Amino acid sequence: MRVVQVKCPSCNTPIYSKERDRLFFCDKCNTLHVRDGGTDKVEYEIAEFNKSAQGEKVYMPFWRMYSSFVIRSKSVEGGQLFRLANWLKGGGDTGSLFIYLPATDMEPSALKYWSTTFTATPPRYATRLNFGGVRRLPASMTKDEATQMADFVVVTMEAEKPGVLQRLDYSLTVNDAKVVYLPFVYAQSGLVPAL
Ligand SMILES: [Zn+2]
Known about the structure:
The strands form three sheets. Strands 6, 7, 8, 9, 10 and 11 form a six-stranded mixed β-sheet that branches. Strands 3-4-5 form a three-stranded antiparallel β-sheet, with no helix packed on it. Strands 1-2 form a two-stranded antiparallel sheet. The chain is an alpha+beta fold. The protein has two domains: 42 residues, no CATH class; 151 residues, no CATH class. The protein starts with a strand and ends with a strand. It is built from three helices and eleven strands, in the order βββββββαβαβαββ. A hairpin with a 2-residue loop joins strand 10 and strand 11. It binds zinc ion (ZN). Zinc ion binds next to loops.
């Protein structure tokens, strides 16, 4: 396996990484940065594990994109509202929400599942300053790639209600994106959140 060595942009400490991870974390100064042509520091949060979490622990990186919506026009038949409309509090046509997207390489079905799950019900957690020795999955998706996929998450969620004739015209703006490391444990069924 190829070892990558980079220097922390904040304190110059060498960081070694064995996996193909686009995100580098400096243990010395708790800086996370992304190597994508240049060296950019990335805003991040590390979520605390549930105290009763059992089994092998792992952190999965997500891009959390704070996004604004403007609904230009909509028509709903069958009495169901768009999820998007449900998220926008107050019944107006503008609003904001957090869109979650896994930054780890995974199958499209898993990507769909985790992005829609956490976007529909944002995870709640206490934060911590470091990983506490817990392994983290490598990130393969850059901030730009995640931003371009934000629309995909919304479209995927809307498409989950078949058989209802709906039309929705909206615009989406990603205002900022940060990395959130969410806690998981390995179970028989696969990775399970340990929030
Ligand atoms: Zn550093």
